[in-house]
Design a protein that fits this description.
Length: about 250
């Protein structure tokens, strides 16, 4: 029978020597044999037991629970637990990736962002925030309206041309404000016309939904609760006044 030292086992499994020794100390996986000098000697079966422990640890199962099930759990159950862990990891990674896309798009508008915006990337409950915003949406918009918004409203975490269109609208308004141009100016009216075109695409001609959305958008608190990008009040007021003038002239 072939025997492997603790060091060889640790190297084979990609874990520290301390880990292998610790599992022996707590009698989770003991070596089949110890020589006269106390050196631990493991068999292939011992290594298999350690590999089972590694897999179960990957599922975030506590060691005390692993000890209870180690010799009774089936391979299928281990694989199912591992699959559940991978699915959860994938969901968290996707949420983190979407948040990163959002921050990159925010930087196109602000050139700089606050450090607190990066904190969720360190493991804050992004899923919890997403669920909370979903609940807030349900309070404001009907199920049908939510479907329309979900399908057509550009999201900061996306990176398509549609997001760029709205970002450019905000930038153009910011430029007008910086240059002292009024909502009734030619530049202001062109912006309003472009927003009306984009609104038609987004809200599919549903004027009531569009009005409800813009009412929410004008409220800094409501926008924040629903997870919308925080647009400066001056920008929203400029746009509102420009669109009023378009409505009057038409």
């Amino acid at each position: 029978m072939n025997y492997f030292s603790s060091g060889e086992v640790a190297k084979k499994l990609g874990v520290s020597l301390r880990t292998v020794r610790y599992y022996d100390d707590i009698e989770l996986v003991e070596p089949t044999k110890k020589d006269d000098s106390g050196r631990r000697l493991y068999t292939a079966d011992d290594i298999l037991q350690l590999q089972k422990v590694m897999l179960l640890k990957e599922t975030a199962m506590p060691l005390k629970d692993i000890e209870k099930v180690l010799n009774h759990i089936t391979m299928e159950r281990i694989l199912l637990l591992h699959k559940e862990k991978l699915v959860g990891d994938l969901e968290r990674l996707n949420l983190s990736l979407n948040h990163t896309h959002s921050l990159l798009n925010m930087m196109k508008l602000e050139k700089d962002i606050q450090w607190e915006h990066l904190i969720p990337l360190l493991g804050e409950d992004l899923e919890g925030k997403r669920q909370q915003r979903g609940a807030e949406m349900e309070l404001v918009f009907s199920e049908e309206e939510q479907v329309v918004l979900q399908q057509n409203l550009p999201k900061l975490e996306d990176n398509p041309v549609e997001v760029g269109k709205w970002i450019n609208i905000i930038k153009r308004i910011e430029l007008c404000l910086a240059e002292g141009k009024k909502p009734g100016s030619e530049a202001g009216q062109l912006i309003a016309e472009d927003v009306m075109i984009l609104s038609e695409e987004t809200f599919k001609g549903d004027a009531e939904l569009a009005e409800k959305f813009w009412d929410v958008r004008k409220s800094e608190r409501a926008s924040s609760e629903l997870g919308f990008y925080p647009v400066r009040q001056e920008v929203l007021e400029f746009l509102e006044e420009a669109m009023k003038k378009i409505a009057v002239s038409s």
